[in-house]
Structures are given as structure tokens and as C-alpha cells.
Design brief:
three-stranded antiparallel beta sheet; Prot-tyrosine_phosphatase-like; Dual specificity protein phosphatase; 5 helices; alpha+beta; two-stranded antiparallel sheet
């Protein structure tokens, strides 16, 4: 069998799929390939819901799940273009002496923060509260995780906050 025949056979075994693509403005489009192999937009408003997410177990399954209220929030966030990941990310990376990098899940885990000796936290997000204001010093940067956001104006104040924290014997996450 020639290479061309092998490729043609493999191509005929491929199944048709639709791809949901989230654009920078948060809107979602569904695309599929046409007969020419080019992507075309499908005219439908099919957004996945949290119940279609394989990482989320249905309520009453006996394992960890989310409430209906949380499901609605997650579904809305997806429609606005956010990637929703409900699995906690509790990795706290030691970058340099006194400097750690962690997710919002790390910032919400008091025991993990204390076990790493964190005293200062840079909260660079929108909609994520400073969980332990009585226990840590915070530097809040209200910014979206989006390529169109300008982080330059926030960079120097954050670096000054981190430098001061480390020079005073603290640790920053």
C-alpha cells in the first residue's frame, strides 16, 4: 500500500468534530471543517454547561461536587470567555529566596501559606478577594488574565512591594 493510500484511509477514519473557540472579547463561536478542510462557523449558540464537564461529578454522586449556585456562576464565566478549572491547584513554587509563586487556590489556603513562611501576597487578579487580611500584607493589582491588559503600570509598584517584603525578612507569594 502506498503512502498516499495509507493517508487516504486514515483520513476516512477520522470523525467529524466541532470546536468551540473563545475569542478575545469573550464571545464563543463553534467551528467545524467543511469539505475543503477549512474551518467554518456553525450558526448555533451551543455553549457547554458545567454538567457536560467531565471533571465535575453530578450532585449526589457521593464524591466532591459543586452546588447549583456555583454551577450557574461557572456556566456564566464560561460564556464570558473564561476557562473554568474546578480542580484545586495547591502547588507553591519556590522561585528565589523569599519569593514564591502560587495560584488563587494557594492564596486561599492559610495552612499552606503559613507552612511556606509567606508574610506578603501579591494578588494580581480581578474578582479574587484578599482572604486573610489580618494575617498577611497584600498588594492588590486589579487586572484580567488577557493579552490586551497593560501590566506595565502595575509592575514597578508590585516589584517595590516584593523587594520591601524580602528586605524586611518576609516571604512573598
Amino acid at each position: 500500500m502506498s503512502l498516499f493510500d495509507s493517508l487516504a484511509r486514515a483520513k476516512s477514519n477520522l470523525r467529524k468534530v466541532e470546536v468551540q473557540r473563545t475569542l478575545e472579547d469573550g464571545s464563543c463561536i463553534v467551528e467545524k471543517r467543511n469539505a475543503d478542510g477549512n474551518f467554518v462557523t456553525v450558526d448555533e449558540d451551543a455553549f457547554p454547561t458545567i454538567s457536560e464537564d467531565p471533571t465535575v461529578l453530578p450532585l449526589g454522586s457521593g464524591e466532591s461536587s459543586v452546588s447549583k449556585r456555583r454551577q450557574k456562576k461557572v456556566d456564566r464565566a464560561r460564556r464570558l470567555g473564561f476557562v473554568v478549572d474546578l480542580k484545586p491547584d495547591l502547588q507553591c513554587a519556590h522561585i528565589a529566596p523569599g519569593l514564591y509563586l502560587g495560584s488563587q487556590d494557594v492564596a486561599a489556603d492559610l495552612q499552606l501559606l503559613r507552612s511556606n513562611g509567606i508574610s506578603h501576597i501579591v494578588n494580581a487578579a480581578t474578582g479574587i478577594r484578599c482572604f486573610f487580611e489580618k494575617n498577611f500584607k497584600y498588594h492588590l493589582i486589579k487586572i484580567l488574565d488577557d493579552p490586551s491588559q497593560d501590566i506595565k503600570s502595575s509592575l514597578m509598584p508590585a516589584l517595590d512591594f516584593m523587594r520591601h517584603a524580602i528586605e524586611s525578612g518576609g516571604s512573598v507569594s
